[in-house]
Amino acid sequence: MNPASETRRFGVFGQLWFQVLVGTAAGIALGHFLPTTGAAMKPLGDAFIALIRMMIGPVIFCTVVHGIAGMNDMKSVGRIALKSIVYFEAITILALFVALVAVDLWKPGAGMNINPANLDAKSVATYLHTAQEQTVSGYLLHIIPKTYASAFTDGEVLQVLFTSVLFGIALAAMGERGKPVFSLIESLSGAFFKIVGYVMYFAPIGAFGAIAFTVGKFGSASLLSLGELIGEFFIVCALFTAVVFGLVSRLVGVSLWRLLVYIRDEIVVVAATTSTETVLPRVMQKMRDAGCKESVVGFVVPAGYSFNLDGTCLYLVTVAVFLAQATNTHLTLWHELALIAVLLLTSKGAAGVAGAAFVVLAATLSATGTIPVASIALILGIHRILAEGLTFVNLVGNCLAAVVVARWEGAVDDRRLAETIGTAALRRRHLAVA
Length: 434
Prior knowledge:
Elements: H1 3-10, H2 16-33, H3 35-39, H4 42-69, H5 75-106, H6 125-132, H7 136-142, H8 150-153, H9 157-173, H10 179-199, H11 203-218, H12 221-225, H13 227-251, H14 256-262, H15 264-273, H16 280-289, H17 294-307, H18 310-326, H19 333-346, H20 356-368, H21 383-409, H22 414-420, H23 424-433
Helix pairs in contact: 2-11, 2-15, 4-9, 4-10, 4-11, 4-17, 5-13, 5-17, 5-18, 5-19, 5-21, 6-20, 9-17, 11-15, 13-18, 13-21, 15-21, 16-17, 17-21, 18-19, 18-20, 18-21, 19-20, 22-23
């Protein structure tokens, strides 16, 4: 059945965001009242995430190859890449400094007086070991897959993007001889997005399992003991979204509120699973439907999952300085600037390692050598709660990045943008032209 007709038939009950909210609420209740049973629901969340990850490689490949091969000017590929990186770096630096100023003013860790020697370092040993293996050269070399096929079997987003760009450029260079392959990829893209649509029917079950596990395993005790950090971080995420993303949205003719409503299904799914990967295929489809050209969406969104992690940057700075405050580690201005400099590099690896932001945090503390690395055991119990905020910001940031680069490149359909997420001014201008 068509999702649109189903929504009309069942009203709000047929909408994905509502179904996921119901699943999330049921998961919270189960985890709270029956924590052991709730923790046992983890496979449901893991299965849903695995189903989506299964589709990420094919969707990125088809979208990127079709977008690049359909271009008449290959120079535009380089321009899109350059503009994307410039925007990613600018917004990343802004996120890092916003988080630093906020945590310095709020001081959520002040007065905790934690002695790092009394912390259980064994609980974070796995993360520390993984962090020690992360190097800049290793990260860059990891973008190149061992074989062409291994990029898809290993499920590495940057590797898939790398091989897809190469294939798209080669297909475009073939001219008429590449037309049959181009048509085949176009048909395959439709089929893969159809599969994604089927998988999303299981989103409420996945949300139920993921949130039941989180509440059942960690409970509400960690919320109370570290409540000030959680409150400060969520407020910073909200302000960054409203102020920074709000300003950027206005500059490119997009209504931030309409954008949030437009991706409400994806926001709810990400909140329940604390993983932006679960909505990557749908985000790419939605930004194309909003008027951004396929060639831009196909590069910007997957690349943004590694290079445009604004929420992760907010998290890394906030938690790092919080741990310094909690352990009475004095940070000078130069220490904090050094932390920002290190995070400009280490934050780019947050999408490519197991444990994601938590591992990058350990790697950053190890690199700076100022804040006790063992102190990250303090936030182990609330990491998934903090992830609610950082994944939301990452999701909105990547959707907005697609519009920014599409605008910058002149690769956007103003009519569709006005109809979906455009500002009132853009809609009036479109109506006047029409």
